[in-house]
Write a structure and sequence with these properties.
The complex is a heterodimer. By secondary structure, chain A is mostly beta strands. Chain A contains three helices and eleven strands, in the order βββββαββββαββα. Chain B is globular and about 95 Å long. Classes of the chains: A mainly beta, B alpha+beta.
């Protein structure tokens, strides 16, 4: 499954300040990480206001202490099957250049300190929308941590099927 | 040079002079010199403001060169800059402004006249000053440009006045320069854009007599004006320093922060208010009321600090237009309307560049050269119109010109050439879509497009700039007549009153500005008065049809149970009205508009979002977007006269007009409602009776009139050449009169605002109908004319009788009134019950004609009031209804009126009026019941 790429040039956070620490969360059976510097906060389920006629990945709007934040459902964003069971999703509020965005995920993980040497670019055979949104992969002991590009995730034009 | 250390580096002053060798002192002064930097910063801010004022004033001065006050203010501005420069040791700037000052001094003292060359020289000074200021701002010094050439020319210009008072600025002093049209010798100019065109500028026609006169006047002025000017100057300076004391400069960031905090405060206040409403605690109640008041005031105050009139941006535009006009050899005037329209300062900043771009575009491509304009029958001087106004919670800015417009065929051709479209696609495009091509990025950058007769260059940049702040751009093209670009900027970062509604179990907010009225729809669907025109739902509102849309359908929400009852919110957007059916109307609230994230920017349905009292988010509906999406607003159209239409303040309704051509009048209109019939008669049927022409018509004699005989009674009436003749028949009670017209043109639906009253007998005035100026015929004059000829007479007994028409619709009142007026009754009008009572108290009437739906509670409420008041109980009342159905419904109600008519049944109304009034006279009391006509 892993085709080792030797090209390590672009780092895990490409140009933006990196702390080497990642806030992790799970969406379906995938584990994602976002640099802690870009994570504003993690919240339990919030009252959500639906936005009729909005793109379907937009779950709604939440009030974050007076700031209105768009919530994006990560399962729909990644074209994964819908959430089952009655466990409510969690909000990972990330800072993007265009303001805060909340990512709805299944479960929150730990903050991990990761070493650059474990980083690799996404495998060549990664396709579809994931290719656009995943910046790279950290090889953890028992699994792989996917580094999410929060800017591209928040930009709904990225990964939209061609019309 | 630093005034504290006198030029040492040791005080850390950035303006220090290295040659200065003062020791020790400077260190102590270090802190003071920080102040010096502050002074420079203030100087920069102030000078930038002053310079932008100068631009505007100078353009104004070119128009009114004799305006002493204006000259004085320009002079003082230069003087202020010069003074500060001396203080701060900016010698180049000081030198330049000094020379400008001396030139202006001469102008002010009447020693010379302002001409374009001199004007350009002063403009150049302004530009040079700006360059220096920019350099000071960036590097802390004046830069390397010394502008020696400019100062030299200015000195020369200043000295040359001693030779010849009207002499234009010459590069050299030439004693024998014969005329002021002489162009200065070509010199190197730092800003070629401004100067060479100025030199080519057509000189003002030189009239020796005029010049002599001017000289003499100037001489006189010189004698007595100097002392006065200096007094005025002192007064002015003392006033301006007082103004400076009353103002302080505050950083915009601080204001932004304050605004955010106030927004939070408003939300918290809303939460407290809601909390308070749920319990009964007197102390909490009083405190929250107080909190409410203070918050509102604070909010208002902070909002005001951030608002700036759009005039701030417009100030430079006259200068831009002037420079463009001079360099292109065009004549362009600029008109501004709504310069005091206030906008949030962030928006002001953002629209600055796009506006300048649009104005330049209009000058360059829109307005034609004077020769072409004259050939096209337009005045040589082109007009650019800037207009700003608030509309539907947005600010609309229009940039219009009366130039050539956009040649759509050329645009299409270009699009095809550039491979943006295939020919067959281009052929299928609507005009509007073609206009839209101009906004395509690929379209505008190409060099080839500049020679288009229309716009093109950089329109995509304008569009993207405006869209960045959430606005939109629209272009209205009138080939041959000009172009108008309409920019709409949404409300962002503002606190507005809004109406909270529910639809499909979701809450939404409608900005109050778009709101016209609320109508509760009956719970019984069959009684909702919603009808369908080919599937499109409409609501009958006071006799006119209002297109309606269902919010839950637009938003794709589940509809609530229709039996729950619903409300109709009547909205206005883009000058048109429509109804929005919602499930429930909750209340009105002050809301803080928060922008939506970029993920939702593409949705035109929402203007933003807000946080409600319970902490949840609610979406703010974009009325315009919703209207357009559901098709009730259709294509965006140009709003031609927003201010006038609003100033009228009268509820105007559209009216059907019959347009025709008669005699020498190319386009005459008369309300279709006043026309009884349109007939054709063969010439052979026209007979002569008495002193006029008549035809036999429906076994009666119909007198014929021509329009000329009404409008110009003395003119010789020519015979009609056409056969058969076309006749418009007007009815006046029992009498009819036919007016002969040459040609029937059209029937138009228009809201009529008579633009220009006519003093001419027989014409009400003129207005624009279907883009053409149209004369409005005064039908009563036509009927009067027929009376003069002895064809009919006013009803007997009508004189000295007064009638009150109570009807909420201005149009219906007018219609009913016209028949009564003509019959000789004195008519007063009232729009609602309150007005009726007021009128009746002022003056008793002989009869009341009341509309069935008289606000607030209908005709029966009026009756009950009248029947209870002594003196009024015997006044007969005639009821009117919009339609026969309504009439029947009303009759069923069994109200005790003396008669009932459909509003359009003028003859019936007249008959009943006559009957009621005469019988009241005969019998001594007025309770006469007349059989209903309908």
């Amino acid at each position: 499954m892993t085709k080792v790429s030797t090209n390590m040039a672009p780092g895990p956070s490409e140009g933006r300040k990196s702390s080497g620490q990642f806030s992790t969360f799970a969406v379906a059976d995938l584990v994602f990480g976002v640099d802690v510097l870009h994570v504003q906060e993690v919240l339990r389920v919030q009252p959500m206001t639906a936005v009729p006629q909005a793109p379907d990945v937009v779950e709604g709007l939440i009030n974050l202490r007076g700031q209105i934040v768009t919530a994006i459902d990560m399962r729909r964003r990644l074209r994964l099957p819908a959430r089952t069971g009655d466990k409510p999703p969690m909000n990972v509020v990330v800072r993007t250049l265009d303001g805060a965005v909340s990512l709805l995920v299944d479960e929150i993980g730990d903050v991990l300190h990761l070493d650059e040497s474990a980083y690799e670019r996404p495998p060549e055979n990664l396709g579809g929308v994931a290719r656009e949104l995943i910046r790279g992969v950290y090889k953890l002991k028992d699994r792989l941590l996917l580094v999410l590009d929060e800017e591209r995730t928040a930009d709904l034009a990225v990964g939209r099927p061609a019309q | 040079m630093c005034r504290y250390c006198e030029g040492t580096h040791e005080c850390f002053c950035s303006n220090g002079d290295a040659k200065c060798d003062t020791k020790g002192l400077g260190r102590i002064m270090g802190s003071v010199c920080q102040e010096d930097l502050e002074t420079i910063r203030e100087f920069l801010v102030e000078s930038h403001e002053n310079l932008s004022h100068l631009d505007q004033s100078l353009v104004e001065l070119e128009r009114r060169p004799k305006d002493a006050a204006l000259l004085g203010s320009i002079f003082r501005t230069f003087h202020t800059i010069k003074g500060a420069c001396g203080f701060l040791a900016f010698s180049t700037l000081e030198r330049i402004t000094h020379h400008a000052e001396s030139l202006l001094c001469q102008l002010r003292d009447g020693q010379r006249e302002l001409d374009p060359v001199l004007g350009s020289l002063i403009f150049e000074t302004v530009d040079a000053s700006r360059t220096i200021l920019a350099s000071i701002e960036a590097n802390g010094n004046e830069g390397d440009l010394l502008f020696e050439d400019l100062t030299e020319r200015m000195r020369a210009a200043a000295e040359s006045k001693t030779v010849e008072p009207k002499l234009a600025s010459g590069a050299q002093i030439q004693a024998e320069v014969p005329k002021p049209v002489e162009v200065p010798k070509p010199v190197e100019v730092p800003k070629p854009v401004v100067d060479p065109p100025a030199a080519q500028a057509p000189p003002e026609p030189f009239d020796p007599k005029q010049a002599e006169l001017e000289d003499r006047r100037a001489e006189e002025r010189r004698k007595d004006e100097r002392p006065r000017a200096s007094v005025a100057e002192e007064e002015e300076s003392s006033r301006s320093s007082a103004a400076a004391d009353a103002n302080i400069r505050v950083g915009v960031l601080l204001l932004d922060k304050l605004m955010d905090l106030v927004g939070e405060l408003v939300l918290t206040r809303n939460q407290i208010l809601q909390f308070n409403a749920e319990r009964e605690d007197a102390v909490l109640n009083a405190t929250s009321q107080r909190l409410n008041l203070i918050t509102s005031e604070l909010q208002e105050g902070v909002m005001k600090t951030r608002m700036q009139p759009i005039g701030v941006v417009w100030n430079n535009l006259p200068r831009v237009v002037r420079d463009m006009a001079v360099s292109l050899g065009k004549q362009i005037q600029i008109k501004m309307d709504g310069a005091d329209t206030e906008l949030d300062r962030t928006i002001i900043e953002a629209i600055k560049d796009p506006l300048i771009h649009l104005v330049r575009n209009s000058c360059d491509h829109g307005i034609e050269l004077p020769g072409i304009r004259i050939a096209a029958g337009k005045p040589a001087q082109g007009t650019m119109t800037l207009r700003a106004y608030h509309e539907g919670g947005q600010v609309t800015i229009e940039v219009g010109d009366d130039g050539a417009g956009i040649d759509l065929t050329r645009v299409k051709q270009k699009a095809v050439e550039r491979g943006l479209l295939r020919q067959d696609q281009a052929d299928r495009l609507s005009d509007r879509e073609v206009t839209g091509l101009i906004f395509l990025p690929g379209f505008s950058t190409a060099q080839t497009v500049t020679n288009l007769s229309g716009r093109g260059v950089g329109m995509d940049v304008v569009k993207s700039h405006i869209e960045k702040i959430g606005g939109n751009v629209d272009l209205c093209n009138r080939p041959g007549e000009g172009t108008t670009v309409k920019i709409r900027i949404p409300l962002t970062l503002a606190i507005i009153p809004g109406l909270v509604i529910t639809s499909g179990n979701e809450r939404f907010v409608i900005p109050q500005v778009s709101l016209l009225e609320l109508i509760h729809l009956d719970e019984d669907i069959s009684k909702r008065h919603i009808e369908y025109v080919h599937g499109a739902p409409v609501y009958r509102r006071r006799g006119s049809l209002l297109p309606i849309i269902y919010l839950n359908q637009v938003l794709g929400l589940e509809s609530a149970d229709p039996a729950d009852g619903a409300d109709l919110v009547v909205l206005q957007a883009d000058d048109r009205e429509f109804g929005l059916v919602v499930d429930n109307i909750n209340d009105t609230q002050e809301i803080v508009v928060k922008p939506l994230g970029k993920q939702l920017k593409g949705l035109t349905l929402y203007a933003g979002a807000t946080i409600m009292g319970d902490g949840r988010v609610a979406l703010i509906l974009d009325v315009l977007g919703i209207g357009q999406r559901s098709g009730v607003l259709g294509e965006v159209h140009e709003q031609t006269r927003p201010t006038e239409a609003r100033n009228l303040g009268i509820h105007s309704q559209t009216q059907s007009l019959l347009l025709f051509r008669a005699g020498s009048f190319e386009r005459v209109a008369v309300p279709l409602s006043l026309v009884a019939r349109i007939e054709e008669f063969p010439q052979s049927a026209v007979e002569h009776a008495g002193n006029g022409r008549v035809v036999q018509y429906r076994s009666r004699i119909l007198p014929l009139l021509s329009l000329e005989s009404v409008l110009e009674p003395d003119a010789v009436v020519r015979g009609e050449s056409s056969d058969p003749i076309q006749v418009v028949v007007f009815n006046d009670g029992d009498h009819s009169v036919g007016m002969v017209v040459n040609e029937l043109l059209d029937v138009a639906e228009e809201v009529i605002n008579v633009r220009q009253r006519s003093s001419r007998h027989g014409l009400l005035g003129s207005a624009v109908v279907g883009n053409l100026v149209t004369d409005f015929l005064d039908v009563s004059a036509v009927l009067d004319a027929s009376r003069e000829k002895g064809y009919c007479s006013a009803e007997a007994g009508a004189h000295e009788k007064s009638i009150l028409i109570a009807d909420p619709s201005l149009f219906s009142r007018g219609m009913t009134r016209s028949g009564l007026d003509m019959a000789g009754y004195a008519v007063v009008e009232a729009a609602n019950l309150e007005e009726v009572i007021l009128r009746l108290e002022q003056q008793p009437v002989d009869l009341v004609i009341a509309a069935r739906d008289l606000p607030p509670d209908g005709c029966s409420a009026l009756l009950s009031v009248m029947r209870r008041r002594s003196g009024w109980e015997k006044i007969p009342v005639l009821a009117t209804a919009d339609s026969v159905e309504e009439l029947h419904a009303f009759n069923g109600g069994g109200a005790s009126v003396q008669g009932c008519h459909v509003k359009s049944d003028r003859i019936g109304i007249l008959g009943s009026v006559l009957q009621l009034i005469s019988s009241a006279e005969g019998s001594g009391h007025a309770t006469v019941v007349v059989g209903e006509k309908g």
